[in-house]
Amino acid sequence: MPAKWLVKRGDRWHFRRAVPKDVQSEFPFREFKETLKRLGLREARNAAALLYAETEEKVAVARAKLRVAPVKAATQSRAHILYLIRDYFHHREKSWSSTPLKGKALNLAISIVEGDLGGVDQEAPGDLERLADQFLEWAKLTVEKHDPLYEEICVWVQSLWHETLERQRDRLYKEPEVRREPFFRDIDRDTRPKPPIPFAQAVEIFESSIEAQGASESTRKARQLRLKAWGELLPARDTIVDITRADVREAIALLAQAPARASIFYPKKTLRQAIELNKASQKHKPLDAVSVDNYLNTLKALFNFFSREGVIAKSPAEGLTGPKVGKSKRRSFTKGELNRLFSVEPHTKPWANDRRSALLFWMPLIALFTGARSAEIGFLRRQDIEQIDGFWFFNIRETDDRGVKTDAAERRVPIHPFLIEAGLLDYANGLKRGKMLFPEVEGPPAMSREAVSKRLMRHIRSVIPDPNAVFHSFRHSFRKAAKKGNVSVEDTLKIGGWEVGSGQSSMYGYGRDFDPEDLSASVQGISLQDLQLGHLKQKAGRD
Protein backbone atom coordinates (compact mmCIF):
# COMPACT_ATOMS: atom_id res chain seq x y z
CA MET A 1 0.00 0.00 0.00
CA PRO A 2 1.26 3.55 -0.68
CA ALA A 3 1.02 4.36 3.03
CA LYS A 4 4.04 2.17 3.76
CA TRP A 5 6.22 4.87 2.22
CA LEU A 6 5.23 7.23 5.05
CA VAL A 7 7.71 8.07 7.81
CA LYS A 8 6.98 10.35 10.77
CA ARG A 9 9.71 12.33 12.46
CA GLY A 10 8.60 14.57 15.26
CA ASP A 11 5.37 16.26 14.17
CA ARG A 12 6.07 16.01 10.43
CA TRP A 13 5.29 13.28 7.93
CA HIS A 14 7.73 12.40 5.14
CA PHE A 15 7.21 10.44 1.92
CA ARG A 16 10.23 8.26 1.09
CA ARG A 17 10.59 5.72 -1.69
CA ALA A 18 13.80 4.31 -3.13
CA VAL A 19 14.41 4.84 -6.85
CA PRO A 20 14.38 1.41 -8.56
CA LYS A 21 17.91 0.30 -9.52
CA ASP A 22 17.14 -0.05 -13.23
CA VAL A 23 16.34 3.67 -13.58
CA GLN A 24 18.75 5.21 -11.07
CA SER A 25 20.86 6.63 -13.91
CA GLU A 26 17.90 8.86 -14.89
CA PHE A 27 17.62 10.55 -11.50
CA PRO A 28 20.14 12.73 -9.64
CA PHE A 29 19.08 11.12 -6.36
CA ARG A 30 18.55 7.64 -4.97
CA GLU A 31 15.27 8.28 -3.20
CA PHE A 32 12.02 10.13 -3.86
CA LYS A 33 11.52 12.36 -0.83
CA GLU A 34 8.83 14.84 0.07
CA THR A 35 8.15 16.55 3.40
CA LEU A 36 4.42 16.61 4.13
CA LYS A 37 4.76 18.97 7.09
CA ARG A 38 2.21 19.01 9.90
CA LEU A 39 -0.61 16.84 8.63
CA GLY A 40 -2.95 14.41 10.31
CA LEU A 41 -2.63 10.74 9.42
CA ARG A 42 -5.59 10.92 7.05
CA GLU A 43 -4.18 13.87 5.08
CA ALA A 44 -0.70 12.30 5.09
CA ARG A 45 -2.10 9.09 3.62
CA ASN A 46 -3.85 11.10 0.90
CA ALA A 47 -0.63 12.86 -0.02
CA ALA A 48 1.47 9.67 0.12
CA ALA A 49 -0.97 7.78 -2.09
CA LEU A 50 -0.84 10.44 -4.79
CA LEU A 51 2.94 10.85 -4.52
CA TYR A 52 3.27 7.09 -4.93
CA ALA A 53 1.23 7.20 -8.15
CA GLU A 54 3.29 10.15 -9.37
CA THR A 55 6.60 8.37 -8.73
CA GLU A 56 5.26 5.29 -10.51
CA GLU A 57 4.70 7.37 -13.66
CA LYS A 58 8.13 9.01 -13.35
CA VAL A 59 9.70 5.57 -13.15
CA ALA A 60 7.67 4.47 -16.20
CA VAL A 61 8.84 7.53 -18.16
CA ALA A 62 12.45 6.88 -17.12
CA ARG A 63 12.22 3.26 -18.26
CA ALA A 64 10.84 4.46 -21.60
CA LYS A 65 13.83 6.76 -22.06
CA LEU A 66 16.26 3.97 -21.22
CA ARG A 67 14.78 1.59 -23.74
CA VAL A 68 17.39 0.53 -26.26
CA ALA A 69 14.81 0.28 -29.02
CA PRO A 70 11.60 2.28 -29.36
CA VAL A 71 8.29 0.47 -28.84
CA LYS A 72 5.16 0.73 -30.90
CA ALA A 73 2.88 3.53 -29.70
CA ALA A 74 -0.10 1.22 -30.25
CA THR A 75 1.12 -0.97 -27.37
CA GLN A 76 0.85 1.96 -24.95
CA SER A 77 -2.38 3.20 -23.39
CA ARG A 78 -3.83 6.40 -24.72
CA ALA A 79 -3.62 7.89 -21.22
CA HIS A 80 0.12 7.13 -21.06
CA ILE A 81 0.74 8.75 -24.45
CA LEU A 82 -1.19 11.82 -23.32
CA TYR A 83 0.89 11.92 -20.15
CA LEU A 84 4.07 11.76 -22.28
CA ILE A 85 2.75 14.65 -24.40
CA ARG A 86 2.19 16.71 -21.25
CA ASP A 87 5.56 15.70 -19.83
CA TYR A 88 7.21 16.68 -23.12
CA PHE A 89 5.57 20.09 -22.77
CA HIS A 90 7.16 20.37 -19.30
CA HIS A 91 10.49 19.34 -20.87
CA ARG A 92 10.16 22.03 -23.56
CA GLU A 93 9.26 24.68 -20.98
CA LYS A 94 12.40 23.86 -18.99
CA SER A 95 14.54 24.11 -22.12
CA TRP A 96 13.68 27.77 -22.69
CA SER A 97 16.35 30.07 -21.32
CA SER A 98 15.24 32.17 -18.36
CA THR A 99 18.08 34.67 -18.87
CA PRO A 100 16.69 38.16 -19.67
CA LEU A 101 17.56 39.32 -23.20
CA LYS A 102 18.17 42.86 -24.39
CA GLY A 103 18.78 44.77 -27.61
CA LYS A 104 19.57 42.76 -30.75
CA ALA A 105 19.43 39.43 -28.91
CA LEU A 106 15.89 40.21 -27.73
CA ASN A 107 14.77 41.31 -31.19
CA LEU A 108 16.26 38.17 -32.75
CA ALA A 109 14.52 35.91 -30.19
CA ILE A 110 11.18 37.64 -30.82
CA SER A 111 11.63 37.26 -34.57
CA ILE A 112 12.37 33.52 -34.22
CA VAL A 113 9.41 32.89 -31.91
CA GLU A 114 7.03 34.89 -34.11
CA GLY A 115 8.21 32.96 -37.17
CA ASP A 116 7.86 29.56 -35.48
CA LEU A 117 4.45 30.50 -34.13
CA GLY A 118 3.31 31.51 -37.62
CA GLY A 119 4.48 28.19 -39.02
CA VAL A 120 2.61 26.21 -36.34
CA ASP A 121 -0.56 28.26 -36.85
CA GLN A 122 -0.47 27.64 -40.63
CA GLU A 123 -0.49 23.87 -39.99
CA ALA A 124 2.19 23.15 -42.59
CA PRO A 125 2.15 19.31 -42.83
CA GLY A 126 5.93 19.03 -43.08
CA ASP A 127 6.50 21.22 -40.02
CA LEU A 128 3.91 19.35 -37.94
CA GLU A 129 5.37 15.98 -38.89
CA ARG A 130 8.86 17.18 -37.97
CA LEU A 131 7.64 18.33 -34.54
CA ALA A 132 5.67 15.11 -34.03
CA ASP A 133 8.75 13.06 -34.94
CA GLN A 134 10.79 15.02 -32.39
CA PHE A 135 8.28 14.06 -29.71
CA LEU A 136 8.23 10.38 -30.76
CA GLU A 137 12.02 10.25 -30.68
CA TRP A 138 12.03 11.79 -27.19
CA ALA A 139 9.33 9.37 -25.98
CA LYS A 140 10.98 6.33 -27.66
CA LEU A 141 7.80 5.49 -29.57
CA THR A 142 7.19 4.44 -33.16
CA VAL A 143 4.02 4.78 -35.21
CA GLU A 144 3.34 4.54 -38.94
CA LYS A 145 2.43 7.83 -40.58
CA HIS A 146 -0.69 6.34 -42.17
CA ASP A 147 -1.91 5.26 -38.70
CA PRO A 148 -4.77 7.44 -37.33
CA LEU A 149 -2.83 7.57 -34.05
CA TYR A 150 -0.07 9.49 -35.83
CA GLU A 151 -2.59 12.11 -36.93
CA GLU A 152 -3.79 12.43 -33.32
CA ILE A 153 -0.23 12.89 -32.13
CA CYS A 154 0.29 15.62 -34.73
CA VAL A 155 -2.78 17.47 -33.40
CA TRP A 156 -1.58 17.19 -29.79
CA VAL A 157 1.94 18.30 -30.74
CA GLN A 158 0.59 21.29 -32.65
CA SER A 159 -1.37 22.32 -29.55
CA LEU A 160 1.75 21.79 -27.44
CA TRP A 161 3.98 24.00 -29.57
CA HIS A 162 1.32 26.67 -29.94
CA GLU A 163 1.04 26.94 -26.15
CA THR A 164 4.78 26.94 -25.42
CA LEU A 165 5.53 29.52 -28.15
CA GLU A 166 2.70 31.81 -26.98
CA ARG A 167 4.04 31.66 -23.43
CA GLN A 168 7.59 32.39 -24.61
CA ARG A 169 6.34 35.37 -26.63
CA ASP A 170 4.61 36.72 -23.50
CA ARG A 171 7.90 36.43 -21.61
CA LEU A 172 9.92 38.14 -24.31
CA TYR A 173 7.45 41.03 -24.48
CA LYS A 174 7.41 41.07 -20.66
CA GLU A 175 3.64 40.73 -20.68
CA PRO A 176 1.58 38.76 -18.13
CA GLU A 177 1.84 35.09 -19.07
CA VAL A 178 -1.48 33.72 -20.36
CA ARG A 179 -2.20 29.99 -20.26
CA ARG A 180 -4.39 29.39 -23.27
CA GLU A 181 -4.62 25.62 -23.76
CA PRO A 182 -6.57 23.87 -20.95
CA PHE A 183 -4.65 20.63 -21.65
CA PHE A 184 -1.41 22.29 -20.47
CA ARG A 185 -2.80 24.89 -18.07
CA ASP A 186 -1.50 23.17 -14.92
CA ILE A 187 2.06 22.67 -16.25
CA ASP A 188 5.07 24.99 -16.39
CA ARG A 189 8.85 24.75 -16.12
CA ASP A 190 8.58 24.02 -12.39
CA THR A 191 5.43 21.87 -12.39
CA ARG A 192 5.22 18.43 -13.97
CA PRO A 193 1.89 16.95 -15.03
CA LYS A 194 -0.15 14.83 -12.66
CA PRO A 195 0.14 11.12 -13.45
CA PRO A 196 -2.70 9.16 -15.04
CA ILE A 197 -4.22 6.64 -12.63
CA PRO A 198 -6.08 3.46 -13.67
CA PHE A 199 -9.48 3.05 -12.02
CA ALA A 200 -8.34 0.00 -10.02
CA GLN A 201 -5.37 1.95 -8.66
CA ALA A 202 -7.64 4.94 -8.01
CA VAL A 203 -9.82 2.72 -5.82
CA GLU A 204 -6.73 1.54 -3.91
CA ILE A 205 -5.53 5.11 -3.37
CA PHE A 206 -8.99 6.26 -2.30
CA GLU A 207 -9.27 3.35 0.15
CA SER A 208 -5.85 4.19 1.56
CA SER A 209 -6.86 7.82 1.99
CA ILE A 210 -9.76 6.94 4.31
CA GLU A 211 -8.19 4.04 6.22
CA ALA A 212 -7.51 6.36 9.16
CA GLN A 213 -11.18 7.20 9.68
CA GLY A 214 -11.62 4.25 12.00
CA ALA A 215 -14.59 2.69 10.21
CA SER A 216 -15.72 -0.73 11.32
CA GLU A 217 -15.01 -3.86 9.31
CA SER A 218 -18.62 -3.97 8.07
CA THR A 219 -18.43 -0.37 6.84
CA ARG A 220 -15.16 -1.03 5.01
CA LYS A 221 -16.59 -4.15 3.39
CA ALA A 222 -19.70 -2.27 2.25
CA ARG A 223 -17.57 0.47 0.70
CA GLN A 224 -15.31 -2.07 -1.00
CA LEU A 225 -18.35 -3.92 -2.36
CA ARG A 226 -19.71 -0.71 -3.88
CA LEU A 227 -16.39 0.26 -5.45
CA LYS A 228 -15.94 -3.26 -6.81
CA ALA A 229 -19.40 -2.96 -8.38
CA TRP A 230 -18.47 0.31 -10.09
CA GLY A 231 -15.26 -1.25 -11.35
CA GLU A 232 -17.37 -3.93 -13.05
CA LEU A 233 -20.09 -1.62 -14.35
CA LEU A 234 -18.05 1.28 -15.70
CA PRO A 235 -16.72 0.68 -19.23
CA ALA A 236 -13.07 -0.41 -19.37
CA ARG A 237 -11.00 2.74 -19.64
CA ASP A 238 -7.26 3.30 -19.28
CA THR A 239 -7.53 5.75 -16.37
CA ILE A 240 -10.06 7.67 -14.31
CA VAL A 241 -9.27 10.68 -16.51
CA ASP A 242 -10.81 8.77 -19.42
CA ILE A 243 -14.11 8.01 -17.65
CA THR A 244 -16.82 10.23 -19.11
CA ARG A 245 -20.15 11.48 -17.86
CA ALA A 246 -21.86 9.22 -20.37
CA ASP A 247 -19.95 6.25 -18.90
CA VAL A 248 -21.27 7.05 -15.42
CA ARG A 249 -24.85 7.49 -16.69
CA GLU A 250 -24.69 4.08 -18.39
CA ALA A 251 -23.30 2.47 -15.22
CA ILE A 252 -26.07 4.02 -13.07
CA ALA A 253 -28.70 2.63 -15.43
CA LEU A 254 -27.15 -0.82 -15.15
CA LEU A 255 -26.87 -0.62 -11.37
CA ALA A 256 -30.59 0.15 -11.12
CA GLN A 257 -31.23 -3.27 -12.72
CA ALA A 258 -28.82 -5.13 -10.41
CA PRO A 259 -30.41 -7.71 -8.09
CA ALA A 260 -30.14 -6.99 -4.37
CA ARG A 261 -27.55 -9.23 -2.67
CA ALA A 262 -26.17 -10.21 -6.07
CA SER A 263 -22.97 -11.68 -4.59
CA ILE A 264 -25.07 -14.15 -2.58
CA PHE A 265 -27.57 -15.12 -5.27
CA TYR A 266 -24.97 -15.18 -8.06
CA PRO A 267 -21.62 -16.18 -6.52
CA LYS A 268 -18.56 -16.15 -8.76
CA LYS A 269 -20.40 -13.95 -11.27
CA THR A 270 -19.59 -10.36 -12.13
CA LEU A 271 -22.32 -7.82 -11.51
CA ARG A 272 -22.92 -7.45 -15.24
CA GLN A 273 -23.40 -11.22 -15.49
CA ALA A 274 -25.72 -11.21 -12.44
CA ILE A 275 -27.84 -8.50 -14.07
CA GLU A 276 -28.22 -10.52 -17.27
CA LEU A 277 -29.03 -13.75 -15.41
CA ASN A 278 -31.59 -12.05 -13.18
CA LYS A 279 -33.12 -10.26 -16.15
CA ALA A 280 -33.79 -13.67 -17.70
CA SER A 281 -35.07 -15.36 -14.54
CA GLN A 282 -36.77 -12.41 -12.79
CA LYS A 283 -36.14 -14.24 -9.50
CA HIS A 284 -34.85 -11.39 -7.38
CA LYS A 285 -35.89 -7.80 -6.86
CA PRO A 286 -33.49 -5.08 -8.04
CA LEU A 287 -31.72 -2.72 -5.66
CA ASP A 288 -34.03 -0.10 -4.21
CA ALA A 289 -33.53 3.58 -5.00
CA VAL A 290 -31.89 4.32 -1.64
CA SER A 291 -29.29 1.58 -2.16
CA VAL A 292 -28.48 2.86 -5.66
CA ASP A 293 -28.09 6.32 -4.16
CA ASN A 294 -25.65 4.94 -1.55
CA TYR A 295 -23.59 3.30 -4.30
CA LEU A 296 -23.57 6.55 -6.27
CA ASN A 297 -22.50 8.58 -3.24
CA THR A 298 -19.49 6.29 -2.80
CA LEU A 299 -18.49 6.80 -6.44
CA LYS A 300 -18.95 10.56 -6.13
CA ALA A 301 -16.73 10.57 -3.04
CA LEU A 302 -13.98 8.84 -5.04
CA PHE A 303 -14.19 11.28 -7.96
CA ASN A 304 -14.41 14.29 -5.62
CA PHE A 305 -11.26 13.15 -3.85
CA PHE A 306 -9.27 13.06 -7.10
CA SER A 307 -10.82 16.33 -8.24
CA ARG A 308 -9.65 18.02 -5.02
CA GLU A 309 -6.18 16.57 -5.56
CA GLY A 310 -6.03 17.92 -9.11
CA VAL A 311 -5.81 14.51 -10.82
CA ILE A 312 -9.06 15.10 -12.73
CA ALA A 313 -10.46 18.47 -13.68
CA LYS A 314 -14.03 17.71 -12.64
CA SER A 315 -16.02 14.77 -11.32
CA PRO A 316 -17.88 13.05 -14.20
CA ALA A 317 -20.55 12.06 -11.65
CA GLU A 318 -21.25 15.60 -10.45
CA GLY A 319 -24.97 16.34 -10.41
CA LEU A 320 -25.98 12.86 -11.58
CA THR A 321 -28.68 11.01 -9.67
CA GLY A 322 -30.04 7.51 -9.49
CA PRO A 323 -33.69 6.44 -9.64
CA LYS A 324 -35.98 8.86 -7.87
CA VAL A 325 -36.07 8.23 -4.14
CA GLY A 326 -39.44 8.64 -2.46
CA LYS A 327 -39.77 12.00 -0.79
CA SER A 328 -38.84 11.88 2.88
CA LYS A 329 -41.75 12.31 5.27
CA ARG A 330 -39.55 12.67 8.35
CA ARG A 331 -41.12 14.92 10.94
CA SER A 332 -40.59 16.20 14.44
CA PHE A 333 -41.71 14.13 17.43
CA THR A 334 -45.00 14.99 19.08
CA LYS A 335 -45.12 15.91 22.76
CA GLY A 336 -46.73 12.56 23.59
CA GLU A 337 -44.10 10.61 21.65
CA LEU A 338 -41.24 12.33 23.45
CA ASN A 339 -42.84 11.75 26.83
CA ARG A 340 -43.24 8.05 26.02
CA LEU A 341 -39.69 7.79 24.72
CA PHE A 342 -38.21 9.31 27.87
CA SER A 343 -40.33 7.20 30.22
CA VAL A 344 -38.89 3.80 29.26
CA GLU A 345 -35.49 2.19 29.83
CA PRO A 346 -32.89 3.60 30.07
CA HIS A 347 -34.74 6.85 30.91
CA THR A 348 -36.84 5.60 33.82
CA LYS A 349 -34.48 7.23 36.35
CA PRO A 350 -31.55 9.69 36.47
CA TRP A 351 -28.22 8.68 34.96
CA ALA A 352 -26.88 5.72 36.95
CA ASN A 353 -23.40 5.55 35.37
CA ASP A 354 -24.21 2.34 33.50
CA ARG A 355 -21.89 2.68 30.52
CA ARG A 356 -23.64 -0.14 28.70
CA SER A 357 -26.65 2.17 28.25
CA ALA A 358 -24.69 5.43 27.78
CA LEU A 359 -25.37 5.68 24.06
CA LEU A 360 -29.13 5.13 24.36
CA PHE A 361 -29.41 7.37 27.42
CA TRP A 362 -27.40 10.40 26.28
CA MET A 363 -27.69 10.55 22.49
CA PRO A 364 -31.47 11.21 22.37
CA LEU A 365 -31.17 13.87 25.11
CA ILE A 366 -28.21 15.59 23.46
CA ALA A 367 -30.01 15.54 20.09
CA LEU A 368 -33.17 17.00 21.63
CA PHE A 369 -31.32 19.94 23.23
CA THR A 370 -28.79 20.64 20.45
CA GLY A 371 -30.34 19.53 17.14
CA ALA A 372 -27.04 17.75 16.35
CA ARG A 373 -26.92 14.85 13.91
CA SER A 374 -26.46 11.28 15.15
CA ALA A 375 -22.97 10.94 13.61
CA GLU A 376 -21.91 14.26 15.18
CA ILE A 377 -23.00 13.09 18.64
CA GLY A 378 -22.06 9.43 18.41
CA PHE A 379 -18.41 10.08 17.60
CA LEU A 380 -17.66 12.82 20.12
CA ARG A 381 -14.56 12.40 22.28
CA ARG A 382 -14.05 13.42 25.88
CA GLN A 383 -12.04 16.52 24.88
CA ASP A 384 -14.85 17.66 22.58
CA ILE A 385 -16.65 18.85 25.72
CA GLU A 386 -14.92 22.10 26.60
CA GLN A 387 -15.46 25.23 28.66
CA ILE A 388 -15.11 28.68 27.10
CA ASP A 389 -15.48 31.83 29.19
CA GLY A 390 -17.34 29.83 31.83
CA PHE A 391 -19.78 28.24 29.36
CA TRP A 392 -19.82 24.58 28.30
CA PHE A 393 -19.80 23.54 24.63
CA PHE A 394 -19.63 20.52 22.35
CA ASN A 395 -16.84 21.11 19.83
CA ILE A 396 -18.05 19.47 16.62
CA ARG A 397 -15.17 19.50 14.16
CA GLU A 398 -13.41 17.40 11.55
CA THR A 399 -10.66 15.14 12.89
CA ASP A 400 -8.52 12.30 11.55
CA ASP A 401 -11.26 9.78 12.35
CA ARG A 402 -14.37 11.91 11.94
CA GLY A 403 -15.62 14.09 9.12
CA VAL A 404 -18.36 16.70 9.06
CA LYS A 405 -21.28 16.78 6.64
CA THR A 406 -20.89 20.42 5.52
CA ASP A 407 -18.78 23.49 6.27
CA ALA A 408 -21.59 24.78 8.48
CA ALA A 409 -21.52 21.55 10.50
CA GLU A 410 -18.14 22.45 12.01
CA ARG A 411 -19.18 24.48 15.04
CA ARG A 412 -19.36 24.83 18.83
CA VAL A 413 -22.74 23.91 20.29
CA PRO A 414 -23.75 25.22 23.75
CA ILE A 415 -24.56 22.52 26.28
CA HIS A 416 -28.06 23.13 27.61
CA PRO A 417 -28.34 23.49 31.42
CA PHE A 418 -30.71 20.50 31.49
CA LEU A 419 -27.96 18.20 30.21
CA ILE A 420 -25.65 19.43 32.97
CA GLU A 421 -28.38 18.90 35.58
CA ALA A 422 -28.89 15.39 34.19
CA GLY A 423 -25.20 14.61 34.90
CA LEU A 424 -23.54 14.84 31.49
CA LEU A 425 -20.43 16.60 32.80
CA ASP A 426 -20.05 14.12 35.65
CA TYR A 427 -20.29 11.30 33.14
CA ALA A 428 -17.74 12.91 30.79
CA ASN A 429 -15.32 13.68 33.62
CA GLY A 430 -15.24 9.99 34.43
CA LEU A 431 -13.69 9.30 31.01
CA LYS A 432 -10.04 9.66 30.06
CA ARG A 433 -9.05 12.37 27.62
CA GLY A 434 -8.93 10.97 24.09
CA LYS A 435 -11.61 8.38 24.81
CA MET A 436 -14.86 8.31 22.89
CA LEU A 437 -17.85 9.68 24.79
CA PHE A 438 -19.63 6.40 24.12
CA PRO A 439 -17.56 3.23 24.64
CA GLU A 440 -19.54 1.27 22.05
CA VAL A 441 -17.90 3.16 19.16
CA GLU A 442 -14.31 2.59 20.30
CA GLY A 443 -12.14 -0.49 20.46
CA PRO A 444 -12.85 -3.98 19.17
CA PRO A 445 -15.51 -4.62 18.13
CA ALA A 446 -16.33 -0.94 17.55
CA MET A 447 -19.77 0.04 16.26
CA SER A 448 -19.89 1.74 12.88
CA ARG A 449 -22.04 4.77 12.14
CA GLU A 450 -24.56 2.47 10.51
CA ALA A 451 -24.61 0.22 13.60
CA VAL A 452 -25.09 3.19 15.92
CA SER A 453 -27.95 4.43 13.74
CA LYS A 454 -29.60 0.99 13.67
CA ARG A 455 -29.38 0.61 17.45
CA LEU A 456 -30.98 4.01 18.00
CA MET A 457 -33.70 3.27 15.45
CA ARG A 458 -34.55 -0.09 17.04
CA HIS A 459 -35.01 1.70 20.36
CA ILE A 460 -37.16 4.47 18.85
CA ARG A 461 -39.25 2.01 16.85
CA SER A 462 -39.92 -0.09 19.97
CA VAL A 463 -41.73 2.93 21.45
CA ILE A 464 -42.94 4.85 18.36
CA PRO A 465 -44.10 2.60 15.47
CA ASP A 466 -44.53 5.39 12.90
CA PRO A 467 -41.73 4.97 10.26
CA ASN A 468 -41.66 8.75 9.73
CA ALA A 469 -40.43 9.24 13.30
CA VAL A 470 -36.64 8.66 13.18
CA PHE A 471 -33.59 9.86 15.08
CA HIS A 472 -33.37 12.83 12.74
CA SER A 473 -36.77 13.85 14.12
CA PHE A 474 -34.92 15.18 17.19
CA ARG A 475 -33.32 17.72 14.83
CA HIS A 476 -36.77 18.84 13.67
CA SER A 477 -38.00 18.94 17.27
CA PHE A 478 -35.05 21.12 18.30
CA ARG A 479 -35.77 23.63 15.54
CA LYS A 480 -39.43 23.71 16.55
CA ALA A 481 -38.51 24.22 20.24
CA ALA A 482 -36.01 26.96 19.32
CA LYS A 483 -38.74 28.85 17.47
CA LYS A 484 -41.12 28.43 20.39
CA GLY A 485 -38.40 29.67 22.77
CA ASN A 486 -37.91 32.83 20.66
CA VAL A 487 -34.36 31.86 19.65
CA SER A 488 -33.36 33.92 16.63
CA VAL A 489 -33.20 32.18 13.27
CA GLU A 490 -29.55 33.18 13.02
CA ASP A 491 -28.63 31.48 16.31
CA THR A 492 -30.77 28.43 15.52
CA LEU A 493 -28.87 27.92 12.27
CA LYS A 494 -25.54 28.41 14.03
CA ILE A 495 -26.32 25.92 16.78
CA GLY A 496 -27.77 23.27 14.47
CA GLY A 497 -25.14 23.68 11.76
CA TRP A 498 -27.66 24.31 8.99
CA GLU A 499 -26.55 25.78 5.69
CA VAL A 500 -28.21 28.74 4.06
CA GLY A 501 -28.82 29.07 0.34
CA SER A 502 -26.16 27.58 -1.95
CA GLY A 503 -24.02 25.82 0.59
CA GLN A 504 -23.21 28.87 2.71
CA SER A 505 -22.90 28.34 6.44
CA SER A 506 -25.26 30.37 8.57
CA MET A 507 -24.06 33.94 8.90
CA TYR A 508 -20.70 33.84 7.15
CA GLY A 509 -17.95 34.57 9.63
CA TYR A 510 -19.43 32.55 12.50
CA GLY A 511 -15.95 31.35 13.46
CA ARG A 512 -14.78 34.96 13.79
CA ASP A 513 -17.76 36.50 15.62
CA PHE A 514 -18.44 33.54 17.91
CA ASP A 515 -19.81 34.88 21.23
CA PRO A 516 -19.99 32.14 23.91
CA GLU A 517 -22.26 34.14 26.23
CA ASP A 518 -24.81 35.18 23.61
CA LEU A 519 -25.03 31.72 22.06
CA SER A 520 -25.37 30.03 25.46
CA ALA A 521 -28.09 32.48 26.42
CA SER A 522 -30.00 31.55 23.26
CA VAL A 523 -29.89 27.86 24.14
CA GLN A 524 -31.19 28.54 27.65
CA GLY A 525 -34.31 29.94 26.00
CA ILE A 526 -35.19 26.40 24.93
CA SER A 527 -37.04 25.13 27.99
CA LEU A 528 -39.22 22.26 26.70
CA GLN A 529 -41.42 22.79 29.75
CA ASP A 530 -44.23 20.76 28.19
CA LEU A 531 -42.17 17.59 28.43
CA GLN A 532 -42.00 15.31 31.45
CA LEU A 533 -38.22 15.20 31.92
CA GLY A 534 -37.88 16.24 35.55
CA HIS A 535 -37.26 12.65 36.67
CA LEU A 536 -33.95 12.66 34.75
CA LYS A 537 -32.39 15.51 36.75
CA GLN A 538 -29.88 14.56 39.41
CA LYS A 539 -30.44 15.85 42.91
CA ALA A 540 -27.26 17.93 42.84
CA GLY A 541 -26.29 19.36 39.46
CA ARG A 542 -23.04 21.12 38.85
CA ASP A 543 -22.24 24.56 37.39
Describe the structure.
This protein is mainly α. The chain has three domains: 2-184, no CATH class; 199-308, no CATH class; 335-536, hpI Integrase, Chain A. 47% of the residues lie in helices and 7% in strands. The protein has helices at 41-66, 78-95, 103-121, 125-139, 148-172, 199-209, 217-233, 245-255, 262-265, 271-281, 289-308, 335-341, 358-370, 374-378, 417-421, 424-429, 449-463, 473-484, 489-496, 516-524; strands spanning 6-9, 12-18, 31-37, 71-72, 141-142, 385-388, 391-396, 411-414, 499-500, 504-505. A three-stranded antiparallel sheet has the order 1-2-3, covered by helices on one side. The chain has a three-stranded antiparallel sheet with strand order 6-7-8. Strands 4-5 form a two-stranded parallel sheet. α1 runs antiparallel to α6. It is elongated and about 90 Å long.
How far is the N terminus from the C terminus? 50 Å
Query: In which order are the strands of the major sheet placed?
Result: 1-2-3
Full CATH superfamily name of the largest domain: Intergrase catalytic core
Unreliable residue runs: 501-512
Nearest-angstrom radius of gyration? 30 Å
Which architecture of the largest domain per CATH?
Answer: Orthogonal Bundle
Please report which band the strand proportion falls in: under 5%, 5-15%, 15-25%, 25-35%, 35-45% or over 45%: 5-15%
Sheet of most strands: 3 strands, antiparallel
CATH class of the largest domain: Mainly Alpha
Order of helices and strands: EEEHEHHHEHHHHHHHHHHEEEHHHHHEEH
> Into which percent range does the helicity of residues fall?
40-55%
Number of domains: 3
Mean pLDDT: 82
Report the count of strand segments: 10
Number of helices: 20
